Each structure stands twice: as C-alpha cells, then as structure tokens.
Amino acid sequence: MSRLGVKNGEHKYDITLKCSSCLSPVTRTRSNMRKRTFCSHNCYWKWLTTQSNWNKGIPVPGPVKKKISETQKRKGIVPPSQKGKVPWNYGIGLLSSIMQLVRASRKCKDWRKIVLNRDNWTCRWCGTKKRLEVHHIKELWVMLAQNRISTIEEAYACSELWDTNNGLTLCKECHDTTRGRWSRKMKQKYLENAK
Predict the structure, then answer these.
(1) pTM tops 0.90
(2) Are 101 and 141 in contact, with CB atoms under 8 Å apart?
(3) Residue 86 CB: number of other CB atoms within 10 A?
C-alpha cells in the first residue's frame, strides 16, 4: 500500500481500454490517453501495416516538388521521370573509350617510361621518388578531340600524343593539385620555370 491508500502499480485515475489491434484490455492513466492504444509493439506494427499512406493520391505542391528534385540531384538520384532518356554526356562515351585504349596501349607505356627516365624517376615539383605518375601538360582528351581521333590506329599515327615534351613526372600529391582549380596556376608555374 502506498501513502495514498492505493495498491502499488495501481492509480486512482486508471482507465481500462481495448487494444486497437487485438482488442485485449489495456490499462492507461488519464494523462496517458491517446486516440489509439496498443498492448504491445507487435500489435502496433500489425495495425500500422494495415493502414494506407495518409498522403496517397494527394498531389504534391510545386515548391515541394522543386525541393525534392534539388535534393535528388544533390544526392545523384535519377528521378523515375528521367530514366531511359539520353544522358547529358552521351557523346563523350566514344572519347572515353578511345582514351582507355590509348592509356592501355604498349606505346603509351613506353612513352611513360621515356618521360620517367628523362626526369630521373623524381617528381619535377617536390623532388620525391615515391608514388610517381606521368602528367600530360596538354590533357589527353584535348589532344584526342582536337585531332579528331576515333580509332587506335589514328592515335598511333598522331605524333602530338607521343611527344615526350608534353609529359611531366609528378608524385601523386603534386599530380592531385593539377586537377581542378589549381591546374592553371601549376601549369603556368612549370612553363615559367621551363623558359
């Protein structure tokens, strides 16, 4: 017995209700009354699966649609309305496949070794000998596009692609700085030092 004269676990204001799912009796206090009461989580989930979506069939307002599409674009999700259409980078596929063929060719690997040997297997910017890569001063895709190269035979015949003066030995860290916003500054720095 508690100080109020009520057994422990029982309250003066308890109300017995029926579970909204299985209809078994459930005891609640007046302060804990809700529209629907359940005897367990299992009953709640059984009941929830029988309910339809509250917004099914309701049209989505314009500003909400715009916000949803912006979020999808930011996350890289292609909305169902745009699946199956021609992608924005459709024409680049041929160029990227030629680039892959050129980079995998024996002639490109030989060109890479010539550039590395010329630079004594050291980074031209920082002087390290670790994680070396060969950088194209004039980008490979630019040369392929300017010379309108569409086959590997045309690539072998193009002397501009295999010019060792267009190659530069860099370590991975320095090579990463050539990509993006720093690329122009780094190229200018190299060209000024080369004069």
Answers:
(1) no
(2) no
(3) 7
Q: DSSP secondary structure string, 70-122?
A: HHHHHHTPPPGGGTTSPPTTTTHHHHHHHHHHHHHSHHHHHHHHHHHHHTTTS
Neighbours of 140 (CB within 10 A): 17
Cβ neighbours of residue 178 closer than 8 Å, sequence gap 6 or more: 135, 170, 186, 187
The letter for the amino acid at 50 is T
Number of helical (H) and strand (E) elements in the chain, helices listed first: 8, 4
CA distance 129 to 126: 9
pLDDT-flagged residues of the chain (< 70): 1-13, 30-34, 79-96, 180-195
By C-alpha distance, which of 177, 166, 192, 163 is closest to 126?
177
Q: Is 187 helix (H, G, I), strand (E, B) or coil?
A: helix
Instruction: Express each pLDDT in 162-174 by its tens digit.
Output: 999 989 999 988 8
Q: What is the CA radius of gyration of the chain?
A: 35
- What is the enclosing helix (H) or strand (E) of 28? strand 25-29
Element of type H or E holding 26: strand 25-29
